[in-house]
Each structure stands twice: as structure tokens, then as C-alpha cells.
Design a protein that fits this description.
There is one protein chain. This protein has five domains: about 35 residues; about 200 residues, Alpha-Beta Plaits (2-Layer Sandwich), CATH 3.30.70.330; about 130 residues, no CATH class; about 100 residues, Rossmann fold (3-Layer(aba) Sandwich); about 130 residues, no CATH class. It has 28 helices and 15 strands. α22 runs parallel beside α24. The protein is elongated and about 140 Å long. Keywords: Membrane, Mitochondrion, Mitochondrion inner membrane, mRNA processing, RNA-binding, Transit peptide, Transmembrane, Transmembrane helix. InterPro entries: Mt_escape_2_C (IPR018850), Nucleotide-bd_a/b_plait_sf (IPR012677), P-loop_NTPase (IPR027417), RBD_domain_sf (IPR035979), RRM_dom (IPR000504), Yme2_C (IPR039627). It is found in: Mitochondrion inner membrane.
Length: about 700
């Protein structure tokens, strides 16, 4: 150590001289002296970058585009590292935090870097510039819209909100919080880097008044331009004026809508015509399909052999045989062989005229028709008292349209002073239903014929096919039989329309319905579309139908009361046991074979009332009704009678002497003087029965 000290004792002077020389150079060249033993400490700075076009925008609560694309933390980190080249950026660039902005379609990246306080803004802008160059060079685009990802330096304080009612719009409301508002030029320089601007407006307008502007409305050309500007400049200060930026809900004005609203005389009829066209084009084929399905029983499981077999092997085995027999037995009135065969013969011909089945109530008219058309496809057993649409299978039907049309008529009349006539009356709706049914029946005949022909071909035996192939010829007899089979097939394919309870009530309310049904039935007959059978208890039905189909005679069947033996059979079947009452045959003979009285008798006998007492009770009730309606004993009905009590009493005395009276002799008696109006009125009131034969009254 002493030697080393002696060795360095003299160089201390050089060292000093060297330092002095260095100091002289330092002052001369103004350069700091590098000291390898000293390291300069640069402070760490933080900043934020906004990455646009990372997620799809969410424009409403029903926007589901973000559900299609990934929104996980791993996806966001990979997207950020793909966009920001961390290893290539200077100043010790480090990503600190990533905040997703899914509603705005972007993300906020917090990063740190080394820089002095005076140069931190320039360094941050340089880093963002390098990121932008990297994105353009690598062509980094979003997979959902194939647009380039953009990066901006955040200058303000982003408002990280998740308010559900606030969604991005291209309009921004820039509020000024300070003494001095920001002018348009400054706003343009601040906002233009984020995208194209459509308009900038100050409110209130400083040129129109003395008050300074409190906010500005900035309209961008795209929504993403507005989202980038809001996330980067919210909270930024310009000359001590803070900028609060929020999305402004856009008030869109539709020129077409304004024109339509301002011209109701043109638009309302046009909309009505468009609605009618859509209804005709869309719903009419659907209605025809449902009508055809109801006629052909397409959706009736009873038409399919598999269902019948399954029901026979399962459900029918659980039911007692007596109940099955009782549920399937037909009415005794359906055993009228003569009238049934006559009706079937008429149905086997081409439809040329109406088939009318008349008779008193309870005479078995409906049972007769059902027995005659038992082999037909239609199995509708509902009554005509139901709605016409449901009866015909007309679906869909919009009953509320008539109410809306009435309201539209009122509105148009109040606004324009003219009637639009949009409302459709029930009569026109019934006419539309009947026309749709007619079209369905017309279109159904070829398809039904083809289906029957295919079924018949399948029923041919293999032996017959082989025989035809071997012989390769047919005799004349076979050809004639084939032609007869084709004619028979054509007759079987003709539908049968049954209108039950026709003209059951002659009132002004139902008069239009009866008239429309008759005209519609005449249309079916004239075009050979279907057979039409009218079932009515009203004897004046002939005159009403003659107006719809003039010049043609009708095929008419008039039913009377059933014979006593049929009535007795009906009573025994209804009571379900052997009846041991000696007065029962006399009561049935006195009551006659009308179903209504026989049903009342059955009900009373089921209540353990003997036949004689039940008969006397029925007679007493009928006497009261005859006095009330026939002689006008009821004061409220007295002024409504179309006949006099003397006229009715004359008929009662004649019928007491003999069971029937000649119609013409009665009409020309002194009490009537050739006027049959009272007789027709009594017939409608069901006080008397008029028998018709060959179109004339007996």
C-alpha cells in the first residue's frame, strides 16, 4: 500500500490538471461531462389510448350482435396485443389495464412510459402515432364489419357509464362548463381527427341574441366517429372551459311519413286497398284449404283406418256393448225406406234443381237426410243456428275488422268530410264466406275424383292385372262397364250441401240470410258444383226458393207423423225396458207420431208418471197454448194476430169432424173469402199444417 501510494503521489497533480482542463472544455463546448458511475432517473408517466372498432356497437336493448361475438377477457387482451406492438414501442411502454367499452364498440387501454414532465405529451402522441402506423401496416380489421381498428390518445377524462337508456348516436351534445364558450373553429379542430363532421351548431345562437352559447350539437357522419370523440374528449378543458359530451337522441324526420299523414284523402283509401289485396292474396287460399278440409274430413281421425282399429282394440273394449249399441242406433224416422231411396236416387243424378225436405217439427227430416247421405264424406252434424263461418269451416275470420272499419269511416268523415265506405256489413261478409265455400267445392271435385280413382285402382287384384297383360284386350262389355264405372265415379264425387232448419224463423233480421243462402244454392246448382238439400219445417219455403231458381220444379219430400208402431218402438228404445202400461198405445195413437210430443211423454214416464196422466198433462198444456196464440187470449199478442178468432174457430170445428180439410174449399168459405193470408199465418205459427203435393196445396 505504501509503494502504491508513492506511485500515485505525483499523478495527483495530473489528475487535478486534467480536471481543470475538462472544466475549460466544458465551458467552451457547453456539454455535460458523462459520468459512467451516475445513472439518470426518468420519471414514469401514464396515459390512455382509446381503441375503436373492437366490438360491435349496441344501438338498442334489442341489439344482439354482441352476443354473437366474443366478449371475454382473453379475447380483449389478444385483440389489444395484436393492435399494440408492445415490444417495438420506445420509452419502456407497458400496458397496465384494459377496460372494455362494449356499448361504444371500443376499449380503453391504460399504459405507462418513461418521459420527463415537460415532454410527456409529445412522447405519448409519438407512441400513439407508432401504434396507428402499425395498424395501417398490418391492416388489422374487425371481423364483424371488416373495417380497420383505430387508435386515439385520450385527452380528457372518459365517463365510464353503463346507463341502459343511453345508446350511441351520431349526434353529440357538447356542453360548456366555464365562463367562455368554445367557438365553432376550436370545436372543429378538436373533433375533426375522429371522423367526418356533418354539422356543428351552437345553442343558443350567439349571432341571434346577446346570450352566450351554452352547448353545441355536433353531427358526425357515422356513429363510431361520435363514440371515439366522446371517449377521448369528455372532460377536456379548452381555455378553462370544460367540455361535457353526451349522446344526443336523434329526432328523425321521415319525409314519406309526413307526406302520408298530411294527405289522408289519398293515403287512407290506398292503405285500405293494400290491406284488402293482402287479405285476398294471403288469407283466401288458407280459407279455401280449411273449407276443403272440413268437407273432406281431412283432420277427422275417424277417417283413418289405423285410428279406427286402435280405438276398436282399446277404448271400445272398455265400454259396455249395450252403451255402444245405444249410442250408434239410428232414429226410427231414418227407417223410411221409400223416402230414403228416393232421396238417394236424386243424389245419384246431376245437380239440376233443389231438393227440399219439408214436414212438421219432429217428423224426422234431418234423420232421413243423414240416413240418405251416410255414405258421403261429409259428417257435419251441427245445426245451422251456429255461425256460418264455423259451419262452413271458414278460417281465419276477423270479426274485429268490421269494428275497425267503422272507426276508420268515422275518422275519415270527421277529417275529410266525405264517407270512405270502408266498413263491411255482415251481409257482405256472409256473401264472401259463401263465395269462398263455392270456390272450395268447385276445386275439390277434380282432386276428389282423382283420389277415388287411385283408390279404386289399388283395389284391383293382382290376378286381374296379370289377366289384362296376358290377354292384352278387353271385351265390349268390359268397356261399357268401365264407362259406367266412370259415370258412377263422377256422381260420387259431387258434394252434397245440407242446409238444415232453413227458414225456421221468418223475421226481417234473418230474411237476408235466407235470401243469400238460396242464391248461393242456386249458383251451385246452375254450375253443377254440388247437390243442395234444404230441410225446413216452414211450408212456405217453396215460394222463397222459387225466386232464386225460377222456371224449375223442385224435388220435394214431405214427411208426416210417424205411424203408431214406429212411435211405440221409439218409446220402448228410449225407456230401455219393457213398458207394461195398457194406456200407452191409446196415448201414442192420440198424440200421433211427432217427435216433440213423444219426447215429452218419455220424460214424464221416466219420472214415474203413468201414460194416461202424462197424456192429459200434454193435452192441457197444448190447450193453453192454442187459446193463447190461436184465439189471442194474451192481451200483448192480440194486436199481432194476422187472423181473427172466428177464422181459427172455424178451422177447429172442421178438424174436429174430420182429420183433414181441402185447402181450396176452406179458402173459399165465407170466413176467408178467397184470402189465404190468414191460413199462411196460422201455418207459420204452427197452429195448422198444410200438405203440399206437386207444388199445390192440398
Amino acid at each position: 500500500m505504501l509503494c502504491r501510494a508513492r506511485y500515485h503521489s505525483k499523478p495527483q497533480y495530473y489528475k487535478y490538471r486534467s480536471i481543470q482542463t475538462t472544466r475549460i472544455l466544458h465551458y467552451a463546448e457547453s456539454l455535460p461531462t458523462p459520468n459512467p458511475l451516475t445513472k439518470t432517473i426518468v420519471p414514469e408517466q401514464t396515459a390512455q389510448i382509446y381503441l375503436d372498432n373492437v366490438f360491435p356497437l349496441r344501438l338498442s336493448v334489442w341489439d344482439i350482435r354482441q352476443l354473437v361475438f366474443k366478449n371475454s377477457k382473453r379475447f380483449l387482451e389478444s385483440k389489444v396485443h395484436q393492435t399494440i406492438p408492445t415490444n417495438e414501442l420506445p420509452h419502456d411502454f407497458t400496458v397496465k389495464q384494459i377496460l372494455p367499452r362494449t356499448k361504444d364498440g371500443g376499449a380503453i387501454v391504460h399504459f405507462s412510459y418513461k418521459s420527463t414532465d415537460t415532454a410527456k405529451l409529445e412522447v405519448a402522441e409519438d407512441i400513439v402515432k407508432k401504434i396507428q402506423d402499425h395498424v395501417k401496416k398490418e391492416r388489422i380489421v374487425a371481423p364483424f364489419n371488416f373495417r380497420q381498428v383505430r387508435a386515439f390518445l385520450i385527452k380528457g377524462q372518459p365517463f365510464l357509464e353503463d346507463i341502459l337508456a343511453h345508446y350511441p348516436t351520431p349526434r353529440l351534445r357538447v356542453e360548456f362548463q366555464g365562463e367562455k364558450p368554445v367557438n365553432v373553429e376550436s370545436l372543429y379542430r378538436l373533433l375533426r381527427p375522429y371522423g367526418n363532421i356533418f354539422d356543428i351548431s351552437l345553442y343558443p345562437n350567439p349571432s341571434a341574441g346577446k346570450d352566450p352559447a351554452r352547448y353545441a350539437i355536433v353531427q358526425f357522419t357515422r356513429i363510431r366517429f361520435a363514440t371515439s370523440a366522446r371517449n377521448c374528449l369528455h372532460g377536456y378543458s379548452v381555455d378553462n372551459t370544460r367540455l361535457n359530451i353526451v349522446y344526443e337522441r336523434q329526432m328523425r324526420t321521415n319525409v314519406v311519413k309526413d307526406w302520408l299523414v298530411s294527405h289522408p284523402r289519398i293515403t287512407i283509401p290506398l292503405l285500405a286497398a293494400i290491406f284488402a289485396g293482402i287479405t285476398y292474396a294471403v288469407f283466401d287460399p288458407i280459407r279455401i284449404f280449411f273449407v276443403t278440409s272440413k268437407v273432406t274430413q281431412r283432420f277427422n281421425p275417424q277417417e283413418y283406418a289405423f285410428y279406427r282399429w286402435l280405438r276398436k282394440e282399446t277404448w271400445d273394449r272398455l265400454i259396455q256393448p249395450d252403451s255402444i249399441q245405444q249410442s250408434t242406433q239410428s232414429s226410427p224416422w231414418a227407417d223410411d225406406f221409400e223416402h230414403t231411396e228416393k232421396l238417394r236416387a236424386w243424389l245419384a243424378e246431376s245437380p239440376e234443381t233443389f231438393i227440399v225436405v219439408t214436414g212438421n217439427k219432429g217428423s224426422g227430416k234431418s234423420a232421413l237426410v243423414k240416413a240418405a247421405i251416410r255414405d258421403k264424406s261429409a259428417r257435419n252434424q251441427s245445426e245451422m243456428t251456429k255461425t256460418l263461418a264455423k259451419e262452413a269451416g271458414y278460417f281465419p275470420i276477423f270479426t274485429w275488422v268490421s269494428s275497425i272499419s267503422g272507426v276508420m269511416d268515422t275518422v275519415v268523415a270527421a277529417t275529410t268530410g266525405q264517407k270512405a265506405n270502408f266498413a263491411s256489413s255482415p251481409d257482405s261478409k256472409m256473401k264472401d264466406i259463401l263465395e269462398t265455400v263455392a270456390v272450395a267445392l268447385r276445386d275439390m271435385i277434380p282432386s276428389e275424383k282423382e283420389a277415388r280413382l287411385q283408390t279404386k285402382k289399388k283395389q284391383q287384384t293382382k290376378w286381374k292385372k296379370v289377366k289384362n297383360l296376358v290377354l292384352n284386350k278387353k271385351s265390349n262389355t268390359a268397356r261399357e262397364n268401365e264407362e259406367e264405372d266412370e259415370d258412377e265415379l263422377d256422381q260420387k264425387c259431387i258434394p252434397v250441401v245440407v242446409i238444415d232448419n232453413y227458414m225456421y224463423r221468418e223475421t226481417s233480421k234473418n230474411a237476408i240470410l235466407w235470401e243469400q243462402l238460396a242464391e248461393w244454392a242456386a249458383l251451385l246448382i246452375e254450375n253443377s258444383i254440388a247437390h243442395v238439400i234444404f230441410i225446413s219445417s216452414n211450408a212456405s219455403v217453396m215460394k222463397a226458393l222459387a225466386k232464386a231458381l225460377p222456371g224449375k220444379s223442385f224435388s220435394n219430400i214431405t214427411l208426416s207423423d210417424a205411424p203408431p208402431e214406429v212411435a211405440m218402438s221409439f218409446i220402448k228404445k228410449q225407456l230401455g225396458e219393457e213398458v207394461d202400461d195398457p194406456k200407452l198405445p191409446e196415448a201414442i195413437s192420440a198424440l200421433g207420431g211427432r217427435l216433440t210430443e213423444l219426447e215429452v211423454l218419455v220424460q214424464k214416464m221416466k219420472m214415474n208418471i203413468d201414460a194416461q196422466s202424462a197424456f192429459e198433462d200434454i193435452i192441457t198444456r197444448n190447450l193453453i197454448e192454442i187459446r193463447k196464440y190461436g184465439f189471442g187470449d194474451s192481451s200483448s199478442e192480440n194486436h199481432q194476430l194476422e187472423w181473427t178468432p172466428i177464422q181459427f174457430w172455424a178451422i177447429v170445428k172442421l178438424l174436429a169432424e174430420k182429420p183433414s180439410i181441402n185447402y181450396d174449399e176452406l179458402k173459399w168459405q165465407n170466413v176467408f173469402n178467397g184470402d189465404d193470408t190468414p191460413l199462411r199465418a196460422m201455418e207459420r205459427a204452427e197452429l195448422i199444417s198444410v200438405v203440399h203435393k206437386d207444388g199445390s196445396d192440398l
